[in-house]
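Sat 14:20. Reprocessing the chain from the morning session after the first attempt stalled halfway. Input below, unchanged.
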Amino acid sequence: GVLLTPWQTALGWDRATISFAAATGIFLYGLVGPFGAALMQSLGIRKTLAAAFVVMSAGAGLSLMMTEPWQLVATWGVMTGLGTGCVAMSFAAVIVNRWFAKNRGLMTGLLTAATATGNLIFLPAFAAIAASGGWKPVVTVVAVATAVMAPLVFLLIPDRPAEAGLLPYGTEPGDPLPPEPVRQNPIRMAVGALVMAAGKRDFWLLFGAFFICGFTTNGLIGTHMISLCGDHGMLPVMAASVMAMMGLFDLVGTTA
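Finished this time. Tokens:
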């Protein structure tokens, strides 16, 4: 959202072309969720997250050299979409189910609201950087930040509470613990879960609700609102601050 107008100005690509790259990223962000969760179950949380951050950093870094629209689709579409899909809702679900025996709803809300907190902090800063230095410094910050996160999550996040000598929150000593998941091919595991879920009415109700949420929040507002505000004469930093304000209320609402 912050980069749409700077890319349009600097590279001469129209808004529809850049939006296609964003759409590709959003599509893969959603599609990869079940496979990311299966990878966490098969390979472990740390390895999956670290690999996802490496892919995100590589995508942002490679985009610094792009000269053609397909390269934007490949980096900020395909690579970023695959990476972010592994650190989204599936990650929150795995963490909550492994680390909490109670207050799972609250913790899911807090982890989901972290996205809004990130918007609150980073959007105005990125808009200010783009306004003063163009799009490349913003992309460089993203590439460096995601590269730094890769070793941090690999070194600091245990796969399970037992690795840290803990019990899941809300579990008393002697309580039965959930069984260790069976490790199997992650693609087969994810496809099998999707096939099973496709036969359930509740799954499609949730799918429809999240589809509408993603279409409006990520597809329309997240991608286009800052540029739309610019079309009406609002400075980018102010427009990003409006988005950040939405993130503040998102934080409160999601947690509640």
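The chain has a mean pLDDT of 90.
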